[in-house]
Amino acid sequence: MKFYNINTPNKLVSLKEAVLTGIQGTDGLYMPQSIPTMPASFFERLPGLSLQQIAYEVTQAMLGDDLNNETIKHITGQAVYFQIPLVQVEEGVYSLELFHGPTLAFKDVGARFMAGLFEHLLQEDETQIHILVATSGDTGGAVANAFYNKKGIRVTILYPSGKVSPLQKLQLTTLGGNVHALEVNGTFDDCQRMVKQAFNDASIQDKINLASANSINFARLFPQSFYYYYAYGQMQQLHPNSQVVLSVPSGNFGNLTAGLLAKQTGLPINKFIAANNANNVVEEYLQTGKYTPRPSVQTISNAMDVGAPSNFSRMLNLYNNSYDAMKADVAGYSYNDDETRACIDEVLKLHNYLLDPHGAVGYLALKEYLKDTPEMQGIVLETAHPCKFSEVVEEVIDMKVAIPEALQQMQGKPAYKQYIEADYEKLKAYLVI
Ligand SMILES: *Cc1c(COP(=O)(O)O)cnc(C)c1O
């Protein structure tokens, strides 16, 4: 498969170039030259296929010219080795639990696929790459875990001191090995600024091969399509020939874009819902046709606090910039923090199901859409385990949220981290030694 950057559509590049060099700043918006159509036989078999088998077949259709079958099996097997169950919440409403991976958020799928692909693409040359990421929470954990022990790759993660949750901090600091955590005396914005400065600093380029693992990389986005096929297949098993609507709690819109990509390969999802918190620029676009990016505001579903979502231009690209075409496939809704809190409380009381704040936004949007279309089966993507946002959730439900066993084990482990000031020169000195 050849790829083009949506800013320079006439220049085609290889998979390797698209994922390894297209990783700096906002320049990583690559799309495949053509989107393969999955064969009818695939969709007929879909309800009986495992997540792993789906991942394998979809990757073969997209990247079969670049990767042999064994490599595809290896990379996809690592990306989706855990369950992604479709769990009923109530009649007509299901939760696709994307939080059974090692860091309890859907970002594990994309980060693990990307790590496997990077490792494969780098094995021919002796290149060492140095992944540099700033994190406000979930991304850093998923990236650290996915790239841990990968040959030829060193990872440095910058996180703001005192501003990530205790659980998130454990995920960043207890791995050690090739994963280095820098606790920055500043905010997330400081961390991001320092990372950007490093990518723009020509004086370090010949000393280290910096790479970013940010969410606009196609290698992180594409594998997120696997679970859309899987969810649809599972739903057809439960409700043959049902129409399916899928609600996606969205921030940077990588997750939703992966669903739209699946749809373009032939997956017959009836409707996608872009579920936003107060950072609702895409919902606004879907309502009015006007797109007005603006600074983000802080909410309790903070992984969705994005004011200028990077993947919006990919969504437009998928619909040839047609508002009407996008609107036919995607509906938008948004909710504030009070509505989100009330939803977590109510769903637990009525249905004995505990949503995290992101999933709650998705659930509210799904219910609103289903009011007019009660014949449809609805799925909300539950993007993280509620224990990752225990401060918010426990206050709402007035109960403790249990932490899964795998994460409890981290609690006694030593932390590997270095403390630095929010000053680029300090980061530079750290990077070039
Ligand atoms: C990252 C994240 C989101 C937003 O996903 P996008 O692909 O950026 O739209 C939603 N929920 C959780 C828990 C996340 O970590």
Question: What is the topological layout?
Answer:
Elements: E1 3-5, E2 8-13, H1 15-21, E3 30-32, H2 40-45, H3 51-63, H4 69-79, E4 86-90, E5 93-97, H5 107-122, E6 129-134, H6 138-147, E7 153-160, H7 166-173, E8 179-185, H8 188-199, H9 202-205, E9 210-211, H10 218-221, H11 226-238, E10 244-249, H12 254-264, E11 271-276, H13 281-288, H14 312-318, H15 323-329, E12 330-334, H16 337-351, H17 357-372, E13 377-382, H18 390-397, H19 405-408, E14 417-421, H20 424-432
Parallel strand pairs: 5-13, 6-7, 6-9, 7-8, 8-14, 10-11, 10-13, 11-12
Antiparallel strand pairs: 1-2, 1-3, 4-5
Helix pairs in contact: 3-4, 3-11, 4-5, 5-6, 6-7, 12-14, 16-17, 16-18
Pyridoxal-5'-phosphate binds at residues 105, 107, 138, 215, 249-255, 303-304, 358, 383-384.
Structural class: alpha/beta
- From the spread of the alpha carbons, the general shape counts as globular
Percent range for β-strand residues: 15-25%
Q: What spatial order of strands do you see in the largest sheet? A: 4-5-13-10-11-12
CATH architecture of the domain at 83-104 and 221-397: 3-Layer(aba) Sandwich
The biggest sheet, with number of strands, parallel, antiparallel or mixed sense and barrel status, is: 6 strands, mixed
Distance between the termini: 38 Å
**Rg measurement, Å:** 21 Å
Summarize it.
This protein has 433 residues and is α/β, with parallel strands linked by helices. The protein is built from 20 helices and 14 strands.
